[in-house]
Amino acid sequence: MDLDSIAPELRSAYQLAVDLARRAGAVQREHYETELDVRTKSASIDLVTQVDHECEALIVSGIEAVRPGDAILAEEGGGENHSRSDWRWIIDPLDGTTNYAHGFPRFCVSIGVEHEGERRIGVVYDPLLDELFHCVHAAGAWLGHRRLRVSTQTDLGQALVATGFAYDVHDSTQDNLARFARVLKAARGLRRDGSAALDLCYVASGRLEAYWELKLHAWDVAAGILMVEEAGGRVTSTDGGPAPRSGAEVVASNGHVHDAILSHTRG
């Protein structure tokens, strides 16, 4: 990425996001497959560990030390809203907590930054593979020093697709199972890996042709949506409109198979 082409304040926020993501990832590596304090939140399958809290505290304190007026939205509730700020940081300190708690190597740090309500920076760090996905609006999406481009596959029948299930899947009739069955029959392969941020980055990098999920949150998608768009992909809601900032639903693809995915993932 050509940092000299990025406006100074945007560049400084990007560099801070990269530094904090790497530092939080180091915490995750240190505690991976050790004895964890695992608790539940909204449901028995909605987990949180002390590592989630430690990573969030590291990231939030790092932002507040350098940019005390910026708004922060973090999964575990850290940081201040600062509703009048032009800048908002959206943080998932450990995306894939259930995986992490079970020693399943599929998790990451996700940091998105908005300016005046628009996505401007995305950083997603996989600490076990040491893969840093990063993007800045109008400057492209990158994996390390390699610029990312979405897949050129045009046939859904030859596409690899990913999805996920909400934490209320045991109780809700809006459980994504009918959509899952339709896509399973239509695509070459269908995966459920448990980290929305990484799934979006994998669409951006061409490892997946498409990904969809319902009932997410802003911290799940803030960095990843921009990553897909900067890599030349398409991101919408299930009806083809703009993907909501809340993360309530998202359909991301290389663009070529988007209409086909939408035909199977509409309600």
Question: What are the defining features of this structure?
Answer:
single chain; 267 residues; alpha+beta; Fructose-1,6-Bisphosphatase, Chain A, domain 1; D-Maltodextrin-Binding Protein, domain 2; 2 domains; seven-stranded mixed beta sheet; five-stranded mixed beta sheet; 7 helices; globular
Task: Tell me how many strands there are.
Answer: 14
Cα distance spanning the termini: 39 Å
Q: Which ranges are low-confidence, i.e. pLDDT below 50, for 5 or more consecutive residues?
A: none
CATH homologous superfamily assignment of the largest domain: Fructose-1,6-Bisphosphatase, subunit A, domain 1
Number of helix segments?
A: 7
The general outline is globular
- Secondary structure class reads alpha+beta
Q: How many domains make up the coordinates?
A: 2
- Alpha-carbon Rg, integer: 17 Å
Work out the strand percent: 25-35%
Percent of residues in helices comes to 25-40%
Average pLDDT: 95
Largest sheet entry: 7 strands, mixed
Output the helix-strand order. Answer: HEEHEEHEEEEEEHEHEHEEH
Highest-level CATH class of the largest domain: Alpha Beta
CATH architecture of the largest domain: 2-Layer Sandwich
Q: What's the CATH topology label of the largest domain?
A: Fructose-1,6-Bisphosphatase, Chain A, domain 1
Strand order of the largest sheet: 3-4-5-6-7-8-9
